[in-house]
Amino acid sequence: QVQKIEGYRISTFQTEAVRTPANVLSIAAVVGGRHVAIRIQSCETIFANKWLCVLNTPSAVLQDSLANELENLGLSFKLRALAGYGVFTPAELRAKKPEFLREMLAGLKWHELGHGIVINDLLDVNDSAFGEALGVLGANIIAVFKEALADWAPRRHTLQGPLRYFCLMAEDRPRAAERQISVYLSDNWFLGEQADSSFANHSEIMTALLLKYIREQGRVDFAGLRGELDNPQGIFYYILAEYRRISAYLEKILKSAQFRHRTKKINFAALQKIYTARVRRLEKEYPVESLEFQVYFWAKILEDLPALNPALLAEIKNYLAEENKKFHRFLLSAYLPANGYPNLRECVCQELKRKGFSAPPDKTDLPALLQYFQTQYKI
Q1: I want to staple 29 with a disulfide (CB 3.0 to 4.6 A). Which of 19, 108, 243, 315 is the partner?
Q2: Bridge partners of residue 31, in order along the sequence
Q3: Per-residue pLDDT tens for 267-288?
Q4: Contact 322, 153 (CB under 8 A)
Q5: With a threshold of 0.90, does the pTM exceed it?
């Protein structure tokens, strides 16, 4: 199935004949250039393994989740989303599967188009390539910024990011928009006993950004959120400026450094020639000036920094860590309403609980919990 929007080709793959190790089923959508690819089989897998299984949760597992603050919040996002569909049993959710998948596909589409807005229209090739390549160093503030920019992308002609799409949905389908926000929060929540700690920072930042527009009983201030998204001085443009500033600084120190290549000490100009030739042999179909080539070029250099210049690698990682702390401080002291929380995680967790994203202690079974969260849609 193919759709075209503003020069973008969105291909939704219904079946897959071949799958590579690099394309695991958890990767539901990608964007490259002006082509978005969405995988139905990934969406089906997510529906079964993430959402349907919630309604089959054994009582003992449910009690353990409710007893852990972070697990409780994560479960609450899922239950509030499911409550928005009015379901109580696996059979009822299966009946809602077509609607659930349509909304999932829409969220994926606008997220990838949000990436497209940033990559193709707002960043030059060099900024895009260097920022993308920094991902080889693991989870860092630039990686979080990339996802935040995609989600908070403003309107550009008929394109927009998913959050703005949810705001438009709220005008005539408020219940659907509310449950989509719960799905969004769940998709960005990686905190809990079994969580991957490398994504904890992602969860804290992405949740804090939206927290500003969540009111009592988990209701979303869509008018305020849309105002933020359409504001040329808003958070999107602040993050975009920070992304550019951090990337430019790191690129500058890389280009001024010396490197150990085999037995020789060389400058960046010499290193650039070596790695351009190396990448050209591997990526023959892409011009040197293309985004695809430049991402691979910078990624290979960053991957080899432990041998080329280990001190520089340490400096880059320390700088990214400090910039991450700086952004946490900005969110706590300047972006979010005045508060006395000691750190961003504490702020996120306590405010989510205060605003209704936590199962109350007297609700200990799934039907009661789902009924509780359904009442939030009736206020």
Answers
A1: 108
A2: 36
A3: 999 999 999 999 999 888 889 9
A4: no
A5: yes
